[in-house]
Amino acid sequence: xxxxLSGTSELIVTQNGAAAQAGALHIKTPGGQVAVFCPFAAxxxxxxxxxxxxxxxxxxxxxxxxxxxxFTTMGVQVTTPQPGSTVNLAIYESKFVGGIVLPGLRVxxxxxxxxxxxxxxxxxxxxxxxxxxxxxxxGGASNPTVRAxxxxxxxxxxxxxxGNTNSTMWVVSADSTAPADASGGPFSRIASGNPxxxxxxx
Length: 202
Description:
The chain has no helices and 12 strands. The chain has strands at about 35, 45-50, 55-65, 70-80, 85-95, 100-115, 120-125, 135-140, 145-150, 170-175, 185-190, 200. The strands form 2 sheets. Strands 1, 2, 4, 7, 9 and 12 form a 6-stranded antiparallel beta sheet that branches. Strands 6-5-8-3-10-11 form a 6-stranded antiparallel beta sheet, with no helix packed on it.
């Protein structure tokens, strides 16, 4: 709301207190629309597509360096739909299993229509902890084709390949739904291929 000033006045503008917490980021666009981004994309941003396998969940790790306001949406772009199909989206915390970092407890879940093409979003309430490793998961009983990031352009959060290359590191499990606790696996590690392009926004 406007304020009234009289005479000679001094206006001091300071940073919003909530935004100052641990380097919080603002990703609102200038027009006020909800902005979205893929938290594990890096380098040159080049996309492709990937076919989700039926009865399989794919888990891609990501990390936030600063605290954020709660994320309110997550989504995926369906490029080749499957009639009458749905796709599960979820976010998982990490869990140490046998000395290995793997998906653990589910902290966000959505079930989206993949019977038509287009970018599909669902409402969530998720605030990542700074520095924590999370996992974006997508999959289910159907096998639509979705937008993906080319392997060479994905940031490798979990390490660099022996050939000094940025090989993709993500895992899959044989699940038709997103389990409440994914740590039971078993997981297959994917060190190549194109990880699904999943987005968050607020």
